[in-house]
């Protein structure tokens, strides 16, 4: 294997510059989703006329079916909320898929940058490395589409499970939900940003596929055939 030779030239080309952007955006993707912690709260009307505020925290990986509200102290509310009530939904598979994939992309970007900047001659001198890079780039672009779409759907359900409609079906609230009033849902802004960044990553990787393709042998023009010594060639004009 050739020795490491630092070349900053690829950073001035789309091949390296876009890879830097992909590296940065992958950090934002897993940080905005994996680092989120939220809160939801509702008010419960006790038979004695007092209102109690019940709140709970939820966070990544969003196993909401393990997040509880209550129970309420029997002395405070006449045992009307005697057992804990769980929120609805387990969205850990979509969230963990999105975050884990973003982390793997982050690591691949680092490895690719080391190859571009330190072993450029090896990368452009061997026909297989650009082709492998191209195939991985196309696969990653596709997986950004899949993971972000799945996470966007899960986020919509999370908003429903932690928003005003969460009191529907809660037994202590009664069938008409008059005993419960939704109070608060902490902003889900960073989760919305994670979805936007996911689709931006899709655009970046899909666009970068063209520049990686240009490095492959598929894009290189075929080499001219060597001249035949026995062929005198076409004589020039008189």
From TrEMBL:
Residues 10-217 form the MARVEL domain. InterPro entries: Marvel, Synaptophysin/porin. Residues 223-232 have a biased composition (Pro residues). Pfam families: MARVEL (PF01284). The chain crosses the membrane at residues 20-38, 97-119, 131-152, 191-213. Keywords: Glycoprotein, Membrane, Transmembrane, Transmembrane helix. Residues 219-238 are annotated as: Disordered. It is found in: Membrane. It comes from the Eukaryota. It is a multi-pass membrane protein. Belongs to the synaptophysin/synaptobrevin family. This is Synaptophysin-like protein 1. It comes from Pogona vitticeps (central bearded dragon).
């Amino acid at each position: 294997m050739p020795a490491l030779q630092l070349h900053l030239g690829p950073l001035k080309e789309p091949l390296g510059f876009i890879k830097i952007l992909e590296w940065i955006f992958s950090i934002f993707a897993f940080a905005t989703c994996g680092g989120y912690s939220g809160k939801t709260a509702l008010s419960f009307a006790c038979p004695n006329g007092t209102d109690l505020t019940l709140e709970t925290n939820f966070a990544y990986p969003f196993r909401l079916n393990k997040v509880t509200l209550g129970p309420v102290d029997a002395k405070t509310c006449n045992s009307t909320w005697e057992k804990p009530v769980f929120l609805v939904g387990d969205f850990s598979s979509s969230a963990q898929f999105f975050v884990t994939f973003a982390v793997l992309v982050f690591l691949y970007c680092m490895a690719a940058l080391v190859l571009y900047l330190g072993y450029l001659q090896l990368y452009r001198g061997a026909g297989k490395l650009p082709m492998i890079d191209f195939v991985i780039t196309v696969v990653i672009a596709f997986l950004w589409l899949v993971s972000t779409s799945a996470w966007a759907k899960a986020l919509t359900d999370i908003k429903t499970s932690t928003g005003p409609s969460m009191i529907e079906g809660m037994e202590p609230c009664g069938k008409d939900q008059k005993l419960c009033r939704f109070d608060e849902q902490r902003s889900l802004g960073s989760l919305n940003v994670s979805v936007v960044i996911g689709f931006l990553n899709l655009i970046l990787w899909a666009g970068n596929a063209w520049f990686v393709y240009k490095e492959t042998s598929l894009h290189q023009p075929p080499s001219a055939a060597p001249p035949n010594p026995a062929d005198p060639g076409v004589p020039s004009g008189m």
